Predict the 3D structure of the following.
Amino acid sequence: MRKIIFALLVGVAGCAGSGTVGYQATYQTAPMPDMAYVAPGVQVIADYDEPVFYTDGYYWRYHSNGTWYRSNTWTGGWVYASAPRPLLTIQQPRTYIRYRPHGYVSHRPARVLRDRYRYDDRRGDRRDRRDRRHYR
């Protein structure tokens, strides 16, 4: 009987232990865009393909049909919203497409342009076809 109790105690003691468990996650966000002053309390993203403004803690995108969309980030998540008063003072928001203020220097990295055709790579088709069933 003592042997059974001793074996159970050793088994339970082996299960009880201490340790540390850790978890680490990384989250990357898009870098902040270059902003340019437009009006009091209003900024626009400089040299951007759409008129995206920043005011009242939100990014605002103007659509060609006259509607405004709001987001917490400048990269997406747009929802329809009524524009705040500072944005309504802008007469033609479309003029701020690719807007570059005087003396503007882009801080974005240059785009990598790659040739679609690789003429120097004319090697033959060297695939290993041993996995096919009809291999001889």
